Amino acid sequence: MFEKGLTNPILAMLFVATDPLTLAELQEVYPKTPLEDLTNTLTELVSQFNSLQAAVEIREIGGGYRLTTRPEYHEDIRAYLQTKPSAKLSLAALETLAVIAYKQPVTISEIMDIRGVNSGSTIRTLLEKKLIQTRGRKKVVGRPIMYGTTKDFAIHFGLKDLSDLPTLEELEEVLSPAGE
Amino acid sequence: MASELTMEAGALASPQIQNQAYTVRLEIFEGPLDLLLHLIRQQEIDIYEIALAEIADQYLHYLEMMKDLNITVAGEFLVMAATLIHIKSRMLLPEEPNSEVEQEIEEFRKDLVQQLLDHEKFKQAAQMLYVRETVELSVWPRGENEFEEEERELVSATVFDLVSAFHQMVERYKESIVLEVAGESVTVQEKLEEIRRLLSVQESILFSFFFERGLSHLHLVVTFFALLELTRLHEVRLIQTAAFEDIRIQSCLKKD
């Protein structure tokens, strides 16, 4: 069961929201509506709205929902905003992030074991970009700092949440050398 | 995804390159594991099947080539080179079957294979992230376009900025700091907690805030240490919009 009367107000909120709109926020707005109805309404809204194939779509990202333009219009939008394509992360940054995302919480030396390279400066850049954060210290000699990914990480890579990441085994099947 | 460097080889080419065209394309490897993987793929052999002696030769040959091209070889490459040479030298020793040496070599081989397999997995994960990022960068959310400009205005402050700001503040507030109560004690840990608490309720604190409250010297010094510690832990970010401006202390931690 979904609350038909709520689809439009929620869409309006999505329009205004700058951060992904979360279910928890909706619950605050509609404390009397059962959580299940809110979930259903949101799911219904997303599927209905996205089936319109409009220029914008609702995407589930970083633990919430947000309204974004569709990728096919990126050139037009860039021309309008007069921006160049944003700088992508370096290969080193992506590899380090991959290790952190799958192994978190993880220390620098553990990252180095997998990458075979010193990753200190990359870690610093990722911290500055707020893609990772410290996660306390590991209870071993030297008490090294551990790192994990942030909500911004999920948003940057268009992930609903961490569970949205394919498992390493799945990746192997999709990207195995045989398929290259 | 691997970046490639094209350079004129000319006179400094190694023998292998001399017969080829005048430009060499040399892939830049992130590290020794990357290079080893590349060498293995080039020969289209299974990672499980690698022959240590052969791969060691090729690895060393590649490093030699990098040296010839005046490319700085990072320390990690040399560590791996040393390990490979060591293993190769052990293999040259006359051996008895199942001897300690043979076991050691086999152990190393197994470790290396495992390391390469893990490394390859994470390279694939990185590739997946790259694809996702590409899609994400061609999508715009609502009204966040001023964000980038704001970022540009901010200059990350260094520890030295913090030190000089501290000095400035002490000078400026010299007169107002009068209260020195004997026996007062405050620990860095307490200050650390105080700053954390402040940052959990507000997005940022101005550095001058701590000085405007007429705290004692001890408090200020301890606050300063606490800030350095928080910076080191990457819990806070120090931001300065221009040189000599007040430093803003911003939390790096995500609030859930």
Task: Provide structural commentary.
The complex is a heterodimer of chains A (180) and B (256). Chain A is α+β, with helices and mostly antiparallel strands. Helices cover 49% and strands 14% of the residues of chain A. Chain A has nine helices and five strands, in the order H-H-H-E-E-H-H-E-H-H-E-E-H-H. In chain A, the strands form two sheets. A three-stranded antiparallel β-sheet of chain A has the order 3-5-4. Chain A has a two-stranded antiparallel sheet with strand order 1-2. In chain A, a hairpin with a 2-residue loop joins strand 1 (56-61) and strand 2. In chain A, helix 1 (4-16) crosses helix 3 and helix 5 (91-103) crosses helix 7. Chain A is globular. In chain A, 28% of the residues are buried. The model of chain A has no long low-confidence stretch (mean pLDDT 87). By secondary structure, chain B is an alpha+beta fold. Chain B has helices spanning 15-18, 32-42, 52-68, 75-92, 100-136, 147-153, 159-172, 188-201, 209-212, 217-232, and strands at residues 4-8, 23-27, 155-156, 204-206, 236-240, 248-251. In chain B, the strands form two sheets. A four-stranded antiparallel β-sheet of chain B has the order 3-5-6-4, sandwiched between helices. A two-stranded antiparallel sheet of chain B has the order 1-2. In chain B, helix 2 crosses helix 5 (100-136) and helix 3 (52-68) runs antiparallel to helix 4 (75-92). Chains A and B meet through strand 2, helix 4, helix 5, helix 6 and helix 7 of A and helix 2, helix 4 and helix 5 of B.
